[in-house]
Amino acid sequence: MYRPFTLSRTICTLLTAVAFGVCLTPVRAQSDDVARAIYISGRVSVLRGGELALSVNDPVRTKEIIVTGPDGYAQFRINDGSTFEVFQNSRVTFRDNFNPMEVLQLWLGKIRVLIDHHNGPNPRKVSTPTAVISVRGTVFDVTVEDDEGTTLVAVEEGLVSVKHQLQAGDDKYLKAGEAIRIFANQPLAKMAGSPQGMQQIVDALKRAATDAIYNHPGASGGGGPIGTGGGTTTGGANGDTGKKKGTGPGGAPGGG
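Above: the chain's sequence. Below: its structure in token form.
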């Protein structure tokens, strides 16, 4: 009698452990699928059955689209400590699918991403209609400049790899101070110019972003911009990325 009793108790213990793990997994995944607004300035909305204005501490969940107006700027934090900033005239989906590595899908406009890696490597991806940017822990800017999905990636800190969504070819790796522009109908190629010239591009993006923040008074609570030093300053891109608001390739959301 002892043997069946031991086996039965072991099975019960295992089933309880499995059930406990299954119950915890959706909770963990769900909590990780939230980006919370930590700073809002100007018109910043989420598309949720309609366009709803966002305030500080409001959540944005998987597959929801963040929209900013011509005066809009926002900062968001996800549970792993990473942050991202969304600039004016932008449309970005938070986790366009349920893959935890896929953080953002930028359709139009400018974002700046800071991937937290204090607890070790943190592989994440950001996508645009023409590019996939893969990172482990770094600070970089991404701009979708037009309806064709022309994408500018500039790295401030760390290393990123860039893959073309539409053209065959090897990935390109960018270090701090390097930039690349991706065109829908062309293979990848690093932007021509000296390292000093590329660093000037990155510096120009950072200055433009800082100007955008401080020229938009009336922020909604939550403190203020993430500082102007130490690798957490907002970045952006050159040019008026809000000049077109049509539907982008691959089913990108329409303008709002």
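The mean pLDDT is 75.
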